[in-house]
From TrEMBL:
Superkingdom in the source lineage: Bacteria
CN hydrolase domain boundaries: 1-233
Family annotation (InterPro entries): C-N_Hydrolase (IPR003010), C-N_Hydrolase_sf (IPR036526), UPF0012_CS (IPR001110)
Family: Belongs to the carbon-nitrogen hydrolase superfamily. NIT1/NIT2 family.
Organism, scientific name: Roseburia yibonii
Protein name, UniProt field: Nitrilase
Pfam family name, one: CN_hydrolase
Length: 260
C-alpha cells in the first residue's frame, strides 16, 4: 500500500484557491501510486483566523466533500479530508474519511485543543474508534491529540494499524513532532503518519513512521510536497513478535475513554 501525504501551504481565507491547489496535489499523489491520501489540519482555510472566517469556510464543506468523494471514487483512493465543522452552534476542528468508492465512512472531531483553538472551537468527544477501510484499519487523531499517549494506545488496542495525524504543527514545537510521532508508533507498534502544513508558522516535515519507530519518509521543513511512501502492512505482525507491548499490556491499566 502507498500512502500520499499532502504538505501544502494554506492561504488564509482563500478556500477556493486552496481547494483547487489541493486537488492538483491529490492528483499528483495518485499518479505516484497513492492508495491513501491525507491532507493537513484546517488546510482549506488556514489556521490563524477568527470565528467568522471559520464559519465562512464551513459553508463550503458540502461542495468540497462532493468534489473529493467524486475524486476518491474515480481514482479508487481512500481520502482523509480535514475540514472545520459546525454542529448546532458549536465549531469543531474535524475531518472526514472517504472510502475508495466515494462513501463517507466516518468523521472525527479534534479532542484536545491547543492554546488559542479553545477561543473558537469545542472539544470533540474523547472516544477513539479505528475504522475498517480498503487500505487497512486506520485511526485518526488531529495534531495536539497525538501529544497524549492514551488516544493512540486506545486505537491500537482496538486494532488500528495506521494512525493518521493531520496537523498545523508550529516551528517552535518541531522537537516534539520529531519525538512524539516515532514514540507513538513504537509504543503502539503501528504506522504513524504526521501530515503538516508549511508557512504561517508551521514547520512541515510531514513523515511516515514504521512500527519500529523508524522514519521511512519525511518531507522538507519549508516547501510544499507530495510525499508518497510505500508501507508493508505485514511489518506490524513482525514487529509485534519481537516487541510484544500490546500483548503484554495489562488492559486493567487502560485509561477510560474520557481520559479524566
Amino acid at each position: 500500500m502507498k500512502a500520499g501525504l499532502i504538505q501544502i501551504h494554506s492561504i488564509p481565507t482563500e478556500v477556493e484557491k486552496n481547494v483547487e491547489h489541493g486537488i492538483e496535489m491529490f492528483k499528483d499523489a495518485v499518479e505516484k501510486g497513492a492508495d491513501l491520501v491525507v491532507f493537513p489540519e484546517l488546510w482549506t482555510c488556514g489556521y490563524y483566523l477568527e470565528t467568522f472566517d471559520f464559519l465562512a469556510a464551513v459553508k463550503e464543506n458540502d461542495k468540497i466533500l462532493e468534489k473529493f468523494q467524486a475524486l476518491a471514487k474515480e481514482t479508487h483512493t481512500v481520502t482523509v479530508l480535514p475540514l472545520p465543522q459546525k454542529k448546532g452552534e458549536d465549531l469543531y476542528i474535524g475531518l472526514y474519511v472517504i472510502e475508495s468508492d466515494g462513501r463517507i465512512l466516518a468523521e472525527y472531531q479534534k479532542s484536545f485543543l491547543w492554546g488559542r483553538e479553545q477561543n473558537y472551537f469545542v472539544h470533540g468527544k474523547r472516544a477513539y474508534e479505528p475504522l475498517e477501510t480498503s487500505v487497512g484499519k486506520i485511526g485518526t487523531l488531529i495534531c495536539y491529540d497525538i501529544e497524549f499517549p492514551e488516544p493512540s494506545r486506545i486505537l491500537a488496542l482496538k486494532g488500528a494499524e495506521i494512525i493518521l495525524v493531520p496537523s498545523v504543527w508550529s516551528i517552535p514545537a518541531m522537537n516534539r513532532w520529531h519525538i512524539q510521532l516515532p514514540a507513538r508508533a513504537l509504543d503502539d507498534t503501528v504506522f504513524v503518519m504526521g501530515i503538516n502544513n508549511i508557512e504561517e508558522g508551521a514547520g512541515g516535515c510531514s513523515k511516515v513512521v514504521s512500527p519500529m519507530g523508524e522514519v521511512l519518509a519525511q518531507a522538507s521543513d519549508s516547501s510544499e510536497e507530495v510525499l508518497v511512501c510505500e508501507i508493508d502492512m505485514d511489518e506490524i505482525a513482525r514487529v509485534r513478535e519481537k516487541i510484544p507491548y500490546l500483548k503484554e499490556y495489562d488492559k486493567n491499566l487502560a485509561p477510560a475513554p474520557e481520559l479524566r
